[in-house]
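Task card 7
Instruction: Convert sequence to structure tokens.
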Amino acid sequence: MNNYPHPIIAREGWPFLGIAVVVAAAVTYFAGGAWSIPFWIIALFVLQFFRDPARTIPQNPNAVLSPADGRIVVVGKAMDPYANREALKISVFMNVFNVHSNRAPVDGKIDKVEYFPGKFVNADLDKASSENERNALVVTADNGQQVTFVQVAGLIARRILCYVQAGEKLSRGQRYGFIRFGSRVDVYLPLTAQPKVVVGDKVSATETVLAEF
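Output:
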């Protein structure tokens, strides 16, 4: 389930896309082309939101890869509340036009998975990390370093999906979850990690190196 072949469109979007296309086609049939234009636009939006292209994995063994597409909104020292340590925090904000498939940033074993219900404030805000609905994975990387990455729901995101459990092995670039409609992913790294991005940078899941051990 975790490493399904890349179908271009994420499986999470198939029901939404099917409904959107059926509705647009029905309006076209019963009301004509002009009336159906807004519905076809909605169908195209659903199609682009749930796209899930294959990604090339960088070969640098010390690289920590971006778990999501989006824009960097935080790079700095912070408390990792899930592993109880001071850490380098890097946050990726995803808007509704980004790919929302989440991918593992490192090779390693999952120590724990924790889900927290919460609010749905704008994921671009710092307080979203501690107040919003979120799902955290604490992972021991193959090099022994601890990495935490947290799926955070956003203003209109209402469903965090995570397909892995504690004790499982993760591979860099592995698809492990999905967040519907706008959100962010926080990554907590050892303080010795060297960031390779700055606030404002646009990043791509798996293909962009966030930091190096």
